[in-house]
């Protein structure tokens, strides 16, 4: 499978496993899982056939580990806008986490903190490099440092997805270190 096809399949999976399963007639269970055969049949029926081999290659080759296969089921690791409970345990975060954004978002973040927006959780990165790549998707990146240790000590809960993305319901502005 060439790189373009890999990207197209990954984006297709993201759209239907995170945001719009109903568009191809699939239903995610309470934890976001769908049988692989159901997904593949639905994709084919809606004009985007994916082979089992392609699916497994996309899951294995995705540098962000966006998808997980467990036996005969698949799900997105995080980032859902549809209601799912990923059943991730509450976990003690490292002292610092990072969030990539762009300069145009800073005023709102200074007043409201980091909010999940259309997702269920705020996504935080374990390192500055990952946060930089995330922020760069929308323009020139700005990396914010989150005092996750202090947040945790104050009672805020954190979870970590299978692909290492840290999740929090909200990050109040007082726990964010802004550049400059």
From TrEMBL:
Family: Belongs to the KptA/TPT1 family.
GO process terms (BP): tRNA splicing, via endonucleolytic cleavage and ligation
The entry's keywords: NAD, Transferase
Known role: Removes the 2'-phosphate from RNA via an intermediate in which the phosphate is ADP-ribosylated by NAD followed by a presumed transesterification to release the RNA and generate ADP-ribose 1''-2''-cyclic phosphate (APPR>P). May function as an ADP-ribosylase.
Enzyme class of the recorded protein, top EC level: transferase
InterPro entries in UniProt: Ptrans_KptA/Tpt1, RNA_2'-PTrans_C, RNA_2'-PTrans_KptA, RNA_2'-PTrans_N
The organism's taxonomic lineage, starting at the top: Bacteria, Bacillati, Actinomycetota, Actinomycetes, Streptosporangiales
HAMAP family according to UniProt: KptA (MF_00299)
Pfam families: PTS_2-RNA (PF01885)
Protein's name according to its UniProt entry: Probable RNA 2'-phosphotransferase
Coiled coil spans: none
Enzyme Commission number(s) of this protein: 2.7.1.-
GO molecular function, one term: tRNA 2'-phosphotransferase activity
């Amino acid at each position: 499978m060439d790189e373009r096809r890999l990207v197209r399949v990954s984006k297709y999976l993201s759209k239907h496993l995170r945001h719009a399963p109903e568009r191809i007639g699939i239903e995610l269970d309470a934890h976001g899982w769908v049988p692989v055969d159901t997904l593949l049949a639905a994709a084919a029926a809606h004009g985007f056939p994916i082979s089992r081999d392609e699916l497994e290659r996309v899951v294995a080759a995705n540098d962000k580990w966006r998808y997980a296969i467990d036996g005969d089921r698949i799900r997105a690791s995080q980032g859902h806008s549809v209601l799912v409970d990923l059943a991730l345990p509450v976990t003690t975060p490292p002292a610092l986490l990072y969030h990539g954004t762009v300069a145009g978002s800073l005023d709102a973040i200074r007043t409201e903190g980091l909010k999940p927006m259309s997702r269920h959780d705020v996504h935080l990165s374990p390192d500055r490099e990952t946060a930089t790549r995330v922020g760069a998707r929308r323009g020139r990146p700005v990396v914010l440092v989150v005092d996750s240790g202090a947040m945790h000590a104050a009672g805020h809960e954190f979870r970590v997805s299978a692909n290492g993305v840290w999740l929090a319901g909200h990050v109040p502005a007082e726990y964010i270190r802004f550049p400059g």
